[in-house]
Amino acid sequence: MNERMPETPPAASEGFALVRDHTVYACVMGSRAFGLATEASDTDRRGVYLAPTPLFWRFEKPPTHVDGPREEEFSWELERFCELALRANPNILECLHSPLVERVTPVGEELLSLRGAFLSRHAHTTFTRYAHSQHAKLAADVRVHGAPRWKHAMHLLRLLLSCRDLLRTGRLDIDAGPHRDRLLAVKRGESHWPEVEAWMARLTTEAEAALPRSPLPAAPDLPRVADFLLRARRASAS
To answer: Which domains does the chain have, with CATH numbers?
Structure first.
């Protein structure tokens, strides 16, 4: 007797169709984008889709994000992506700076041209808040298991490096290549936790010191982003 494959729920099917037919920007993230990939690294894909404007005219709105359809793939609807980027969400901002772009449309090109409009000193708060939460989890692992999850420790260090350099230069550079050897040694568990924790503390202090003199503006350029989103919605409605 043949077993029937489980059917994809209608909501998921609609989301997958939006990713397939309306993606404006898609890239590879994770270790491959950060210059930290090894033979065992996954391929993490992230994307942005523009839901057709008529879909917002019904009671049931299109999804703000879609998980899939491929393994390790996640996408956001354009408006949600812009909202998160304006809030200086670290994961979102980094997507805009991936060197591994897989798909880009004219709308996606304009989105990329707005990278600077999303950057502001708000990044110090969001990056460090995220870092604090991750550090707490790592410290809990040390207390319970005697060691942290070294891969997570490596990525936290990478994030802190990006935050410090962003505040110093006003540019977000996600390439951790210059620190690759040292970071991969952390991932392999070859460093002692006190040494790693001291590095984290030093990077946090250096980011705080860079904040008062940072070339970043105090806030993102909301009017510029809002104008872009409005024009994209209007074009999609025609």
So the answer is: 10-117+221-237 (3.30.460), 122-213 (no CATH)
